[in-house]
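Hey everyone, long-time lurker, first post.

I ran two proteins through the pipeline my lab uses and got sequence/structure pairs for each. Pasting them in order. The first:
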Amino acid sequence: MFSWTVIATTGERFSEFAPYVASVNDAGTVAFQAALRGGGTGVFTGSGGAVEEAAAGSALLAGVTSHPDLNNKGAMSFYGDLRGSGGQGVFLLRDGRLETVADTRGPFESIGPLGPTMNEAGTVAFRADRAAGVSGIFTADDASVATVADTEDLWGRFHGLPVITSGGTVVFRADRKDGVQGIYAGGREGPIRTVAETGDIFEALAPFPSVNDHETVAFAATLRAGGAGIFTEDDGRFTRIIDTDGAFEAYRGALITNAGAVVCIATPRGGSLGLFAGPDPEADRILALGDALLGSAVADFASNPVSVDAAGHVAIRASLADGRQVIVRADPAL
């Protein structure tokens, strides 16, 4: 079902892509973080030909510390270190101009972990610590920063990365202070909506939910009645996409596209962890540990909610058994 486009490999130019994932926009352009053989780190884009560096030579940026998220207008957001100050920032690169939309020179003590997401309007969702012991989910643009949720309220801990929709809704995974695990949706204004919580139906929720611009949420979960699966939630209605009664025995996460397709991070019965575009572990297989790739075998891979687009492309960072690291794009058959 899929063919491969090689975006970048370690070698003369790049020394490391791990631990960050790659992102892809609807044009199939892939953005990734890399360490350079000559020293330093940067963010890069490619579509299978020449790889271009973004924000090269910036007087503001000392190094990149997350995946970049790339929108359809070519704008990009990522976490990084500030040059000269030793601080951290949430960076936005748009129309050739690099700026911080939040940083530790202001109200934040630290930025992250993991990485940001952004929408077509250039609003960025990110995690940060605002004060000692206070963590939160925030949104920012070039005008202001807003709090979506923080640990001064009912949440005790956040997981994964916040995912923002075109309308500005942010979906995030959190544990409440009373021990309940949940997936929630909120924004700059209005109340926080509960997407799913442990309790009557769910026993545990995986740390990386994803959401598309139609605000359909996809996630992996285990059930109180037993078993596990990949689920979607739309306007309060749950749909189980795949469960452990079938060909898979465990699930780690789900990535949903704006077209509504769901890519599962799962383990088939008797098989290895992989990426699958549907319920058949053979016909819907994209990539799994041990698979042949570029003359070697896959030893490790990573993708998260920024790694899929509406056309069904999947951006993957993989480590190979021969020591190479690669950024590849899985392209669905037409």
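...and the second, right after it:
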Amino acid sequence: MASPIDLTASATALRQALLARRFSASDLLEASFARIDALNPGLNAIVTQDRAAARAMAAESDRRLAAGTARPLEGLPISIKDAFDVAGLPSSGGLPAYKERIPAEDATAVARLRAAGVVIIGKSNVPVFSGDFQSYNPAHGVTGNPWNLAFSPGGSSGGAAVAVASGMSAFELGSDLGGSMRWPAHSTGVFGLKTSWGLVSTWGLIPPPPERRPPRNPDLLVAGPITRTAEDLALVLPVLAGPRDAAIVGARLAAPRRADARGLRVALWAEDPFAPTDSEVSSAVRDAARRLAEQGAIIDETARPAIRFADAFEVYALLNHAVVAYCLPPKVRAPIQAPARGFSPNDLSHQALQARGASMTPSQYHQVSQRRAALKRQWARFFERYDAVLCPPAPVGAIPHDHSPDIHARRLDVNGDKRPYLDFLIWASLATGADLPALSAPVTLSAAGLPLGVQVITAIGEDLLAAAIGGWITEAGGGFQAPPITRA
């Protein structure tokens, strides 16, 4: 090996080192394998590998690097969330029934990464059907948080976030419907970008089940990168952007509207009565705002779009539960739908919203979609006056493992109060319900030594601005830190 390799360096720095021939793609891959062998038995983030295929990809990358024909992501070793199809690799979606399922075709986003020169190491762990905020399933077991193995790294892109945080993967491909990239990024101290809806194709993603895939992205569902730095988001996102079919119209990636933080107009939304939030999380959001203010940003603590948080959450939650229910087999869907008639239309409890959403008729779905369109118009007007919103990625920081079977009986500890587990959806709903890009960027550590982040929301298509703001926040302090398990 030409020189020691820092596997927790940014993907951008690793790419520059490959281009400078300081080490080869094969060297980098073998170092990654050694890291996986050392750390993955305790973390259980990488659940499937094909080392022979990866070595062949790395050898091809070395040939291209030597010939001067390197592609944009040439030689970078990555894992792929086990919700995405990867040709030739078992792709289970966390379902035991799919554990041996080997697709013949890559998911569209995976195909774009492969064509850009990545070396695919394997797959990272997810909850069953990507349907939980922790990453465990009967097919592949439990994934631990590299900051403290007694804690979960979050879900559903929990294995992905751990692979990136621990240096087993240069970056990852994740997906997000209810915070599935933002929450694990917040829990593990990395960057997770929920992209504008339609910017990145989700074809080849589970859910929905393989036999029920639509040509366009299902409502609300997105794919995007998980990285160690903001500059890596700008490296990877242009590769991922674009629909499966040119006839499908989606969001377009815009250049950042500002070159630096001077004059940046930021709405600070650190807490809200509708969304109780742990004080350490709110403090981290305020710390991020302070860093931007020190760079010349204009922080407004009262600015809000002309929407009611409760209305925005109801619209999102109904559509979210409808999308999820569509993907479930009838025998699983029926018990969720059964209680719907017993709930008032004004009941915003998680149980009521889940049952009502799962039971919506096409007409009701259309009515809720019209409400959503009105919310999106208000957000568009808001972003004519402001550049970004800073808010919590989730109500709490990383949580201890809790696999009790009734998800509605689980509780979060928010400033000593017990809150419903599905409160994880509330802060995530603002961006997802309006199709907006939202970045979770690391800010600081809690008193317990666990990561805390900030959510940066920008206008549709301005994903690169969200990434840039995340970079400005972390350049002023905080940012990615290698977790303790990598320093043992």
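Reply from user beta_strand_b:
Welcome! Quick read of the second one: Residues 29 and 418 are 45 Å apart (CA to CA). Residues 11-254 form a domain with the Amidase signature (AS) enzymes fold (CATH 3.90.1300.10).
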